[in-house]
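Per reviewer request, we include the raw input and output of the structure prediction for the construct analysed in the revised manuscript.
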Amino acid sequence: MPAVVDLACLSCLLLLISSSSTATACDRCVHSTKAAFFNKASALQSGACGYGSMATSFNAGHLAAAVPAIYKDGAGCGACFQIRCKNTQLCTKQGAKVIVTDLNKNNNETDFVLSSRAFRAMAVQGKDQDILKLGILDVEYKRVPCDYRRNLGIRVEESSQKRSNYLAIKFLYQGGQTEIVGVDVAQVDSPNWTFMSRNYGAVWDSSRVPSGALQLRVVVTAGYDGKFVWAKNALPADWKNGMVYDSGVQITDVAQEGCSPCDDGSWPATARLI
């Protein structure tokens, strides 16, 4: 299914998601690949998701660029993964938890390119420089829930213009194990919804946004599960560019996907995000 679907009626999208088969489903599919690292954190700050310099504040700077199949035209932005290298003499059993903030265009057979901080975090104590010298590692990974213990944030982008009814927003702190695949906007208490389009990465926009306080409804999904999340008071009437607003909703859903093998329970629990 495409990562971006512009629908005035999001229920159509939700129905399409719900009709998928759930055969051989699990919530922790384990994949094998290779991972490399960026020498400079700035390479991920200017990433395709559009988080900019705030990316380094996510998860203590444990960030990743992912291949198109994981990036999903931006729907994968903010997704969390646990990655561990297969060299048990150099790396821990737990590995590192990372957040996708960029697109890995030149994959060189690697699904992920990590920030150097995240790459070193996979190492056992005293071996971080050894894995940096290797440069590329055989790893296995699985998608895990993002656990922020905070509500979904909505950042109003600097390009927004009230006079022309143009609004661009960026979603932050997306919890659970979900992807945002559709967004509608309307005045608070109004039944007249307008769909928003994915501009790029985590940024959605519309040039037909009404005035006044705004509500949002989004479809969140990962794998087989899809649902509405309704932020009834998402933005105040006097919203300002560059500000981050509390949506009032917290996403904690963990959805199923089809795969083999599933996590056999050998992975330790992950730490929650900062």
